[in-house]
Amino acid sequence: MPGPPVRCGPMNDKETKIALVTGAGSGIGRAVTVELLRTGWSVALAGRRAQTLEETAALADARAAKGASLCVRADVSRPDDVAGLFTAVRERFGRLDLLFNNAGTFGPGGVPFEELPYDAWRHVVGTNLDGAFLCAQAAYRQMKEQDPQGGRIINNGSISAHTPRPHSAAYTATKHALTGLTKSLSLDGRPYRIACGQIDIGNAATDMTERMQTGALQANGEVVPEPVMDVADVARTVRHMAELPLEANVQFATVLATTMPFIGRG
Q1: Which ranges of 189-243 does DSSP label H, i.e. alpha helix?
Q2: Which of 8, 25, 168, 188 could anchor a disulfide with 57, C-beta 3.0 to 4.6 Å?
Q3: What is the tens place of the pLDDT at every residue in 29-60?
Q4: Is 140 considered catalytic here?
């Protein structure tokens, strides 16, 4: 079950847009949360560790956050946790304008496909795909029922939604599936002013990609350092997508380190 909500910042006014960011305790989720709070959004932060969520909220405050924050410990792969998370958001803020479906895991690195344990496969699928489904479904219901009706869902894809890395079957499969979920939500949400887009991110400088700067396995078997980009550039891209009117939508966006191996990968 989700932990008790922690009120991390001041209450919001009725004109403030409300966002929910999953995986907000680190990496891209942290950067997006800070960017949204800094620019006046109120944000519910969701993640498995309460301490890192509170650290994210404190970092936003240190950068002169203008929005209110709410920290909720939740595992997005668990239906009861997701239900509790959205109840906490509704009770605190009353509505939801944006879900950034960001929580994800790569799984065990360097494991050949034929040696990938089923438990590891299920963990990646549970977090990356089941979690995205559960949160999107809860957001969809909220956005459909609220007044004014509508909102936006942004799914965090990956360039692995287009092109895999070696030994990444579970991660790549979930990211390809996420693209299908994005398309279906875009279609099904039209009657209710629910817009859905996907941001595919490559080599943002986070803890998850730190190893790439020292050497990442390439398709030809070589281990080569890869360039990274500032995660703040990703955060600004998400905010641009989020702040469009609901009559406009960035369906798919790819933001990546310019010279990383993607075009021509393999």
Answers
A1: 231-242
A2: 8
A3: 999 999 999 999 999 999 999 999 999 999 99
A4: no
Asked if residues 53 and 3 have their Cβ atoms less than 8 Å apart, the reply is: no
User: 49-53, 152-156, 205-209: which range is least confident on average?
Assistant: 205-209
Beta strands in 80-179 (DSSP E): 98-101, 151-156
| Predicted pLDDT of residue 260 | 83
Check if the beta carbon of residue 39 is closer than 8 Å to that of residue 14.
no
CATH code, domain carrying 194? 3.40.50.720
> Tokens 């190893």 map to which residue?
211
Residues of the chain with pLDDT > 70, as a percent, come to 91
Task: Give the chain's domain count.
Answer: 1
> Does residue 265 sit within a domain?
no
Q: Do β-strands 151-156 and 98-101 pair in parallel, antiparallel, or remain unpaired?
A: parallel
Annotated active-site residue in 118, 140, 171, 192: 171
C-alpha span between 149 and 138 (Å, rounded): 14
